[in-house]
Amino acid sequence: MGNSLGVSTPTVKRYVDFLEEAFLLKSLHPFSWNMQKRLVKTPKIYLTDTGILHHLVGVTDLNSLAGNPIIGSSWESFVINQLFALKKSQIEIYFYRTHHGSEVDVVFTKGLKVIATAEIKYSNSPQLSKGNFLAFEDLNAPMNYVITPSSDDYIFKERIRICSLKAFIFNYLPAL
């Protein structure tokens, strides 16, 4: 990121730290418990106000958002912000990605124990990637969720539930 902006890495880190302290950004850190996996170690950064993101890319209404390539990132940021705001204090949230392609957007833990994962999709008929299935296998969570804007709530495969954000927040997040 520093090269793209023409500044040093420590400067970017200072800017990100400042924006986090101002509650404009939220960093999601990678989950790592298996040192034999080659994990991505750089945090994912989310804007805490998706309205700022929409303004920066020229989205002025719901119709212009619907056709914009940032809709998936915007939805993911919105969901991450909701999860941080509503989770129990003893639950930690991370993401998981390896250099071999395993990837899931959210890992819920209590200590080092993975209690659930969630993949965030802006589709009510989501498609999971091979990397998602590899991550589910790597992490071996009791339940893996796919959070969508407004899909029906159903078991997709063993230990994989597809549900809307509302269903997840009211029915499943409290049980974690």
General description of the model:
This protein has 176 residues and is of the alpha/beta class. It contains 7 helices and 8 strands. The model has no long low-confidence stretch (mean pLDDT 91). The protein has one domain. The strands form 2 sheets. Strands 3-4-5-6-8-7 form a 6-stranded mixed β-sheet. It is 36% helix and 25% strand.
Main beta-sheet strand count, sense and barrel state: 6 strands, mixed
Please state the oligomeric state of the protein chains shown: single chain
User: What class would the helix/strand composition place it in?
Assistant: alpha/beta
Number of domains: 1
Average pLDDT score: 91
SSE topology sketch:
Layout: H1 2-5, H2 9-21, E1 25-28, E2 44-47, H3 50-56, H4 62-66, H5 71-86, E3 92-97, E4 103-110, E5 113-120, H6 130-139, E6 144-148, E7 154-157, E8 160-164, H7 165-172
Parallel strand pairs: 5-6, 6-8
Antiparallel strand pairs: 1-2, 3-4, 4-5, 7-8
